[in-house]
Give the backbone structure.
Amino acid sequence: MTTLDFALHYISRGWAVIPIAFGTKAPPAGFPLARYLSGEWRSDEASCRVWWAEGDYGIAVLTGKISGILVADVDPRNGGDTTAIRARITTPCPTVLTGGGGLHFYFRLEQGQSIRSGHSSVQGVDRCADLRYVVAPPSIHPNGTPYRWEN
């Protein structure tokens, strides 16, 4: 599957996506990120086809109300214990192995539910929700390692 195929699949799930510069965690220079994060603009199949025809981009998924998902971002570099957090997750959920050795747990939000992004009460775990995005497979981390779906 191509990166475009992944982007279109994410859109079919109701998730908003944006391109990120290859090997980074940031949109390409000049990309109007604020308009997408606010929900003023939303990606669709046509915009994805244009973006990925223009360049070799990675994918970011917008989190929170706009996509109906909350992502728990477990980052070992900040003290996140992936084994301990995995043991605390009792409901099966889509999980991404990040390029940096962490985990992203995707949880569905109730329709229209809004949750603030920020640090959780657990060390090394952030809530990625409103006004945030996460890098998604098959993007490449700055260290060269791909993000990939675990399940």
About this structure: The chain is about 20% helix and 25% strand. The CA atoms of residues 5 and 137 lie 11 Å apart. The first strand starts at residue 17 and ends at 20.
